[in-house]
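Just wondering, can you check both lines?
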Amino acid sequence: FQYKGSVIGDNSAVINIIGQLKHDRGFQEVSLETKAKPYGMTLKYENIEATMIEKEYKETTIYNATFLFALIDNAEWTIINVGDHKYKITRSKLQDWYGKNLNEFTNEKELKAFIQEQLKDESKVNQLFIK
C-alpha cells in the first residue's frame, strides 16, 4: 500500500506493485496504455502452476486486478494473459461485482481479507467473466 495513489504513467510504481501480487514469479511483461483514456495495462504471465487451472487463473485475475485498481488511481482496465487464457476486467465492472469502491481500502490486510471472502463463491467468480 506504499504505492497507493500511483498512476499508470509511473512505470516503477506499477512494476513494484506487480512484483508483490499473486504469481509474481510467473510475471513476464506489462504494457501500459497511457496515450489515450481510458488508461490501462496488459500483463503477461507464464508458467503458473495451478491444479485447477481456469479457477486459479480467474482468481489470480480478480486478486491482481483488485490490487492494481485499488493502488493505481487512473487505471480503468487491465488485461491479464495467463498461458492461453486472456481476461479483461474494468474498474467499473469489478467495483460493481464487489459492490464497493476499491479506493476506499486503506491497507493490504483489509483488502486481502475482502478479496478472499468474495472468492469463496465460485459461481459469483464465474459471473464476473461472463461476456
Q: What stands out?
A: The helical segments are 11-18, 53-71, 91-98, 108-119, 122-128. The longest strand covers residues 27-33.
